[in-house]
Amino acid sequence: MAKPRTTPQVIRSTAEFAAHVGLSRSTVSRALNGHPGLKQKTIDRVQAALDATGFRPNAHAVNLRGRRAAMVGVCMEDFRNPTAVAKVSLLQQRLREQGLTTLIEVLAPGSSRQTLGHLLSLRVGAVVFIGHFDPSELAAQIDELTRHSTPHLVIDDPGPGGANSVSLDRVRAMELVIEHLVAQGHRSFGLLGISGAFQTVTDRLTGVDRALRAAGLDPAVAAVSLDSLHVRRDHFEYGSLLARSFLAQRRRPTAYLAVNDDTAVGALLEFQAAGLRVPEDLSLFGFNNQNLCLMTRPKLSSVDQNIEDTIDVSVKTLLAKIGSVVTRRITTHRVAPHLVLRGTTGPAPGNAGR
Amino acid sequence: MAKPRTTPQVIRSTAEFAAHVGLSRSTVSRALNGHPGLKQKTIDRVQAALDATGFRPNAHAVNLRGRRAAMVGVCMEDFRNPTAVAKVSLLQQRLREQGLTTLIEVLAPGSSRQTLGHLLSLRVGAVVFIGHFDPSELAAQIDELTRHSTPHLVIDDPGPGGANSVSLDRVRAMELVIEHLVAQGHRSFGLLGISGAFQTVTDRLTGVDRALRAAGLDPAVAAVSLDSLHVRRDHFEYGSLLARSFLAQRRRPTAYLAVNDDTAVGALLEFQAAGLRVPEDLSLFGFNNQNLCLMTRPKLSSVDQNIEDTIDVSVKTLLAKIGSVVTRRITTHRVAPHLVLRGTTGPAPGNAGR
DNA sequence: GGCAAAAAACGACACGTGTCGTTTTTGGTT
DNA sequence: AACCAAAAACGACACGTGTCGTTTTTTGCC
Question: What is the CATH number of domain A69-168+307-336?
Fold first, then answer.
């Protein structure tokens, strides 16, 4: 009874769809792509049929015709890092608002080349790296991307250089932490898990150094790290082990700075199990401000990463790079951190500074 | 000096690649796809050039030619649920071993149709749902997938029926928990956050009921829920609120079963803050067996989801469905849970059972 | 009813790949 | 040198889309 004479169960192409609507393929095409010179009634008819059938043009054919896909590849180190997951989650949401699809991949150390090749074969518009990667391997990936004139962006681990990056200003973050604790009377600081070659770590050490010097303290004396005594496997467990080692020391720092919240919580429980009171006997600072911070007693003070700003800047940068021609110009952005003071930080005990 | 006379900076097609190697396009193509009748030396030459240039055939062109893409779409409710993230992480890993790409998307309640359309436009080979979804909306999605003869799989929330599913046997899980606690002398149980319309919840209530009856107890008396007293926002906070409400009761259960670990930890801290000793005064069971369980004192007993089995079965099911023609046959799998006993569970206090 | 303008249809091409049948070249053997 | 089979090259088609110039149909107006 209705117009369409051929009504295939599944519509596979614009040709079939056009036949179903009773229009020509070109008319449907320009209706779908918003070209001018169409009667409003026709546009409505196409739209109605679109809603009714749920037809969507084959993305592969669309992307094959265009030079570049409306996709952004995201390489992650892991799904176990809650902060990285939060970032990719927000990033996907924001990119989708811009009409961009996000293709999330875990970049395994061995098969990173293969994974990147996969993204390149899909002709993604850009590739984003989130997390920690082997510096030389990352540099190779970025080099390959550049050779394929595909823009890239590294979030949080800029690496040795030559990469576009957006990252938290970790130097400033540690300066803020130290400044705050010094103002509270602390003069000796234990570092929990802040060691290694990643720039996310070396930046923090730089910040600690600067702030200590600015306060007239000698970093070699005022900052203590026992990281080398243990092998890092699980963050939480590592925090416990380090705390135990500090407990065995004769003279102990009055404040502790952890590489992340898990490590801080591990240390906190160990200190408390030894009968120490927090924050009366010692102060403790986490990093990342995860939900976990609310689940300890007292609640954990931490550094907030300001993920919203990080992602907003990242998206803006990406859009600019995708839109324009590829330039050799390297862009770098720093996002300001802020401290979240909770129950694990307080004045230094007595005059026990040093 | 070398053979290739034309060496474009970027190789964009097999034609350019073939010219670069000094072979014809068809020869290169059959070398790439492992066709017989080629000299080993030629194959090696192609492979070497492949490694050297990093060229990968345009995936869109490949997928355009084939009927179906070697991609699997994964719809998630959220990235904030650690268990769901763990599942998608393992799923992606396993699917990649099978040569399948995973496209992860968050299915926002409003724009779920649009997101699914996006996956369909990419002609994915299958769509997996992980998490909790609105039943009617999920049913509509599955219906649309079936109309497009695209296989689907729902992990963990089978919904009202008519969907292929792989999920933890939550009925059995709660039976195991109750059986264990009854054997320890517990006769009255508090339910923390186990309420709502999702099947992942109703299944658990069924399990509680069955096990209680089997133990000769009346579920209406032995199982107490105060969920309706509070609005659920954050799991941890909800656990705290519920514990406070139980503390205000005259007669209290001796054992508590939480909907997840976060809720359990919230309750644990509240009970302890009130001076109750765990497990001497009360027992507490979490659900999911996350890392968080190790971060409390005492450590939290919990139900392990057996994610490896879940994903293994899921991958097997998916491969079968992708390979064969679409059938109307619905498949359902249940994965066995197991209990992880830690410090928050013990014998019921005195004879205070009832 | 006629006429011009607007709307729609038509037809063809390009995007990059896999495949297949046919033709040409290569390389080894008699 | 001749021959023959293996190896490579050649040419063409299909996949589904966007676009564009051209032709046909519809619409609106006098």
Answer: 3.40.50.2300
Residue among B85, B93, B148 minimizing CB distance to A85: B85
CB contact under 8 A, B148 and A123: no
CA of A119 to C1' of C16 (A): 17
How close is the nearest chain A Cα to the Cα of B118, in Å?
8
B28-51: pLDDT as tens digits: 999 999 998 899 999 999 999 999
pTM: 0.91
CB B28 within 8 A of CB A25: no
Cβ pair A269:B295 closer than 8 A: yes
**Overall size of chain B counted in residues:** 354
Residues of A in contact with B106 (CB under 8 A): 89, 92-93
What residue in A sits closest to B83 (Cα-Cα)?
A80
Output DSSP code: residue A74.
E
Confirm if A283 and A182 have CB atoms less than 8 A apart. no
Shortest alpha-carbon distance between residue B65 and chain A (Å): 9
Q: What is the DSSP pairing of strand B338-340 with strand B302-304? A: antiparallel
B104 to chain A, minimum CA–CA distance in Å?
7
The order of strands in the sheet holding B283-285 is B223-225, B189-192, B255-258, B283-285
Question: In chain A, which residue's Cα lies nearest the Cα of B235?
Answer: A291
CA B272 distance to own-chain centroid: 32
In chain B, residues under CATH classification 3.40.50.2300 are 68-167+307-334, 170-305
Of A10, A101, A291, the CB nearest to B148: A10
Chain B residues with CB-CB distance to A86 below 8 A: 79-80
> What does the pLDDT average to over B209-223?
97
CATH 1.10.260.40 in chain B is located at 14-57
**Nucleotide showing the shortest C1' distance to residue A18 CA:** C9
pLDDT digit string, tens, across residues A218-270 = 999 999 999 999 999 999 999 999 999 999 999 999 999 999 999 999 999 99
A47 CA to C1 C1' in angstroms comes to 36
> Does B14-57 carry CATH code 1.10.260.40?
yes
Position B216 pLDDT exceeds 90:
yes
At B10, the pLDDT band (50, 70, 90 cuts) reads: confident
The one-letter code for the residue type at B74 is: V
Tokens 């010179």 -> residue: A37
Note the CA–C1' distance, B38 to D20, in angstroms.
Answer: 43
Using the CA of A64, which nucleotide's C1' is the nearest one? C15
pLDDT (tens digit per residue) in B299-309:
999 999 999 99
What does the pLDDT look like over A57-112, one tens digit per residue? 999 999 998 767 789 999 999 999 999 999 999 999 999 999 899 999 999 888 88
**What residues in B contact A63, CB-CB < 8 Å?**
60
Q: Distance from residue A67 (CA) to nucleotide D20 (C1'), in Å?
A: 19
- Domain at B68-167+307-334, CATH homologous superfamily: Response regulator (3.40.50.2300)
Domain B170-305 fold = Rossmann fold (3.40.50)
**Closest approach of chain B CAs to the CA of A89, in angstroms?**
6
Longest Cα pair distance anywhere in chain A, in angstroms?
Answer: 93
- Residue that is written with structure tokens 């931490």 in the block: A302
Measure the CA–CA gap between B210 and A77, rounded to whole angstroms: 44
Residue B280, CA distances (Å) to A236, A295, B255, B349 in order: 26, 22, 11, 6
Once rounded to an integer, what is the mean pLDDT over residues B200-217?
97
Give the pLDDT mean for B203-221: 97
